Amino acid sequence: MAKKKEDEAVRRNNQTVATNRKARHNYSILETFEAGVALMGTEVKSLRDGTASLADAFATVDDGEIWLRNLHIPEYHHGSWTNHAPRRNRKLLLHRSQIDTLIGKLRDGNMTLVPLKLYFVDGKVKVELALARGKEARDKRQDLARRDADREIAREMGRRAKGRT
């Protein structure tokens, strides 16, 4: 009985809350980072309910700090007047060396910081942040064509393995 409760607690403390599925379609991912997020108590409680949206979220650098903007965490339904604003700016927690390398890479070219995933690790909220470059329309079409071709090859290989040519 105690083991079952413990497994439930571990699973609950290591869950994915939200993913940004369009990010890999719209951007070429160059490098990923894991960052902590500075949150209020009602935001964490709302995230435990599994409700958040990374659809329009992005990260910016202001005065040597990284900020996550446009992340939507709905108000906590049991909250009182101390509830949070759903789309407030949230500070990302990274080491100074990581922030400096990100600032240097962002200055070099037309790259952006895109959040890919929001999740819990040992009870702490983390965000997977990607250093990305925007794709053009032709790149997106090429990726779709390549994915379709790979899928068709896999189907044909499966048919041949089963003896259905």
From TrEMBL:
UniProt-annotated stretches for the region Disordered: 138-165
Keywords: Cytoplasm, RNA-binding
Entries under InterPro entries matching the protein: SmpB, SsrA-bd_prot, SsrA-bd_prot_CS
Subcellular location as annotated: Cytoplasm
Keyword RNA-binding: yes
Top-level lineage group: Bacteria
Pfam families given in the database record: SmpB
Bias (Basic and acidic residues): 138-159
Job of this protein: Required for rescue of stalled ribosomes mediated by trans-translation. Binds to transfer-messenger RNA (tmRNA), required for stable association of tmRNA with ribosomes. tmRNA and SmpB together mimic tRNA shape, replacing the anticodon stem-loop with SmpB. tmRNA is encoded by the ssrA gene; the 2 termini fold to resemble tRNA(Ala) and it encodes a 'tag peptide', a short internal open reading frame. During trans-translation Ala-aminoacylated tmRNA acts like a tRNA, entering the A-site of stalled ribosomes, displacing the stalled mRNA.
HAMAP family: SmpB (MF_00023)
PANTHER family per UniProt: SSRA-BINDING PROTEIN, TMRNA-BINDING COMPONENT OF TRANS-TRANSLATION TAGGING COMPLEX
Family: Belongs to the SmpB family.
Protein name per the record: SsrA-binding protein
